[in-house]
Amino acid sequence: MKFGKRLKQQIQETLPGWRDQFLSYKELKKLVRSISSAPTLLNGSFEYGRAEEEFVYLLNNEIEKFNAFFMEQEEDFVIRNKELQQRIQRVIGKWGPNGNHPSEADYKEEMAKIRKDIVDFHGEMVLLVNYSNVNYTGLAKILKKYDKRTGGLLRLPFIQKVLQQPFFTTDLISKLVKQCESTIDAVFPVEDEERTREAREAIIVAGEGIFRNTVAALQSMQEIRRGSSTYGHFSLPPLNLPDSELIQSVQLNSPIPTV
Amino acid sequence: MNMHPALSVQGSGAKQLRDMGSGAMSSSFPVFASSLDDRYSKYPDSFQVSSGREPVTNSISTQASALASNGNIDGRLLTPSPGFPNDPHGRLPQNSPFISQSSTDGASFPPNHSSHQDLQSTVLMNQYEGSQDIPPWCTATLQDILDFPDNIPVQTGQVEGATGVITSEDHTRRNDWQWADGLISELDPDWNDLPDVNVIDPISEIHQQPPVPSAEFRSVANTLSTAPPAKSRMRWTPELHEAFVEAVNKLGGSEHATPKGVKNLMNVEGLTIYHVKSHLQKYRTARHKPESSSEGTSEKKFTSIEEAKSADIKTSMGITEALRLQMELQKRLHEQLEIQKKLQLQIEQQGQYLQKMFETHKKIEDGKSKTSTSALGDPSVPLSNAIADVKAETLKLDQPKAGIGASNANPTPEEGFWDISQEQRAHEPGDGESNASPTKRARTDQTGNIID
User: Fold this and answer.
1) pTM of the predicted model as reported, rounded to 2 decimal places
2) If exposure means fewest CB atoms within 10 Å of the residue's CB, which of A14, B221, B237, B388 is most exposed?
């Protein structure tokens, strides 16, 4: 139940276009519940196994959904990444110190915009990775419930398949994320002291969509991994976030009602 | 629709299976049912895009891309469905006899058929490694088909007539569509009937290739890109995009380039004009409205409201600091996500490993006659060899330092295996694994309260 609530919260905080792209955890849970826990062969019964069938069918649909959404986003990111890089090059080439029309003012102005865009871009990509992770976690959990309910062995092979799905293979996105980080470090160098100080400031933020979502995601992750009554072979160890005070210090106001 | 004949055939087949007198459980047949569905709708796509990936060296997935090609969208997937749950009873209990054996065996996977066991482990290995061992697998499934000739009154001719063809076909598709079916589908011989229904397009292709290409299976899949329907998905990588941009620039820029021209210039196998078209559209939008293009209007509205509010915050904090903080958090989240993912992979790996251990041991146990051997204490050579093999195959991922304590925690019979395997591994010139194991154990204690 905790996961369900966490998921709901994340969905709430997520970027609008993403809201219905997450796992339909509740629905799947309902299906699992409706599976009779004492399966006996009921000859000629129409209802026999219907819930299981629906369950698996829905699961497959969900995975389809994830894949489609994920790859769509990934494609966008690939394009945007390239565009950003080019934009940076253009600005440096034009207004940079070695450019065609060196102009510190213009350079700074443009770079400031680019910086914001890079950070947002970075954030969105991280959120996509988070999306992948949240859905995976949900799948793992619901499969566990299913197996528990039916005494079945759906989980193991199914998860193996999931691991190979496009939406789970986030290596490319992670690579782009790291690229962003190094780009920002290269183009906007900063002393270390300054950075750590700012990172520790306690701030109340009514933040942007991306920011809120990130914070919510981190909080969620922390909670999900805090401790569980059902630790087993397949449970993740508790999360040890360095600077977890940082997260705590960032408090989110109530969500802004959106259209 | 074509699907129904196949179903009814299986229905009759299933009755026969049932009459074989096994118990029945419901657990896995729905996988069959829905994977039927998926398989059916995905089938023509399955070879679609994998070829498109070939020129792009992305180690993640030649398979993932093949799977990606199956990322078919709602239209196809849903159409067969309405008929599905309403199918008459005959169809329903199909898998149950088969699957029941696997379920009632408790933790161990395979049913009593040894051929299935082979199937199982082979397929597991296949899945894991990503490289294929086609012949044994294919033969096994063919065996199954031929073992139940009565199941396939209609299909037999086709099956037998196109033996090698279906084999490679099936395997390709199997790899293309692994997740929907899982091993459960392998347990069901009837499954292999399905290809016949859809075999129209690709089969003509396959005839051109030598039957059962083993190492080349991927090329088989890749060259099978005739008559692809519109709706498969392409997984765009930076390299592919580079090629795209080059092509577009050669053709005069995003305004003047046509999808067809770009497609031809790029000359990527499996890349359809629809892929190029949609990508071109995205590209154009991205160029004209940098950085807010892919979000859509609703999101724009959202962000502008948010931005208005956050503008206050930002001026008070300083935009730079705000951005830095945001970046910091994002970095943090990403780090954690990466770690979590590694852990998840590792967990599943080990689960798989344990599973195999069980199977392997069971095999050995079954192989030996009634002599009582304790599961844990037997230092039989075949067991250790088997373990070595299994280990070598399953645990190829680099083991990151973060350990999985949980698997060491439970005092179950499985842990017995675990202990043995740990010892074995310690003695072996591992792939860095003998180092990892003590690390893992240490980790258990450090991460502490995993054990209750």
Assistant:
1) 0.54
2) B388
